[in-house]
Prior knowledge:
There is one protein chain. By secondary structure, this protein is an all-alpha fold. The protein has one domain. Helices cover 72% and strands 0% of the residues. Helix 2 (33-39) crosses helix 3 and helix 4 (59-85) runs antiparallel to helix 5. It starts with a helix and ends in a 20-residue tail after the last helix. Mean pLDDT is 81; it is low at 1-6. The chain crosses the membrane at residues 66-85, 92-110.
Amino acid sequence: xxxxxxxxxxxxxxxxxxxxxxxxxxxxxxxxxxxxxxxxxxxxxxxxxxxxxxxxxxxxxxxxxxxxxxxxxxxxxxxxxxxxxxxxxxxxxxxxxxxxxxxxxxxxxxxxxxxxxxxxxxxxxxxxxxxxxxxxxxxxxxxxxxxxxxxxxxxx
Length: 156
C-alpha cells in the first residue's frame, strides 16, 4: 500500500511540475502576442506563431522579464492583502492609503512590463534581421493633409 501511495504521489507531483512547465513555456513563447497584434495587425493563431518565432533566441530573457514582474506584482499584492487582513485595518486611513498606493504601483509595474515587452519585440525583430517601421521612414518628412473647410467647432 505504501508503494502505491508513493507512485500516485510521485505521478501527481510530476503532473504538477509538467503542467507548470507547459504553462511557463506557453507564456514565454506567446509573450509578444499582444504587441504583434497591435504593431503588425495580425490575429489569432498567426499572432501566437509569430510570437513563438520571434522569441526563439531570447527565451531566457523573456522568462527573466516575466518572472521579475510577476514576482514583484504578486509580492506587492500579497503583502497588501496580509496587512489589510489583520483586524479592521482596511477601514483605517492607513488601509485606504495602502490600497491606493498598491493600485498605483500595480498600474506602474504593468505599464513597465508592457514597455519591456515592446522593447523585447524590437530587439527580437532586430535579431531576426527584420526592418522596424521607424527605419523605413527615418529622416523623411511626412505631410499630413489639412482640411481647408471651416467646420463648426462649437463647444457644447
